[in-house]
Amino acid sequence: MIIYGSRAKQLAKETIADPCPDCQSNNSVDMYVFQRYAHIFRIPFFPITKTGASQCTHCKQVLKLKEMPPSLQVAFDNVKSRTKTPIWTFIGVALIGLLIVNGTISSGRHDAQVSQRLKAPQAGDILEVKKSPSVFTLYKIAEVRPDSVAVLPLLYTVDNPSGLSKLESGSYGYAAEPTMYSRENLSVLLHAGEILDVIRK
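Below the sequence we write its predicted structure tokens.
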């Protein structure tokens, strides 16, 4: 299975007035312009270059671009200059751009939701916490007071954020004694990137 590579598609075909280099027939040479493009899983990602070939309808001689005499190469350049690069050759780049934009918007919405929940915490909320670059755990809000929040740290940790979902779904125990955080401290932890998410059920 071919995952990536390059292909060529015909964009233009014009009959030129130059004589055929082989049989010298006039108005018998068809000039072709092809667009080479990079693809991944057959999806065009970006254009590479334009190339061409000529064929005489009289003697059937076919010449690749590098094989053409200077006069035919000039004719090819003229046909190529009138041939625009198709928009579809940028489909892959456009898809990546859309994914980046969508990811940025989704991330912004998520961050806003986490910030909003942390400003109005509720008992039972689960905080996903990054304690160090390789230590992640959960805090459960046990009590909400006017100026502070009591949290129960989970007794288990994982070494990457993807493992937090296993902790959430498992029957792991939390500390018996709560740790107190002021609401201001929680906001500082959020902006420092130590609070990753607030799960509210």
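The first strand starts at residue 4 and ends at 16.
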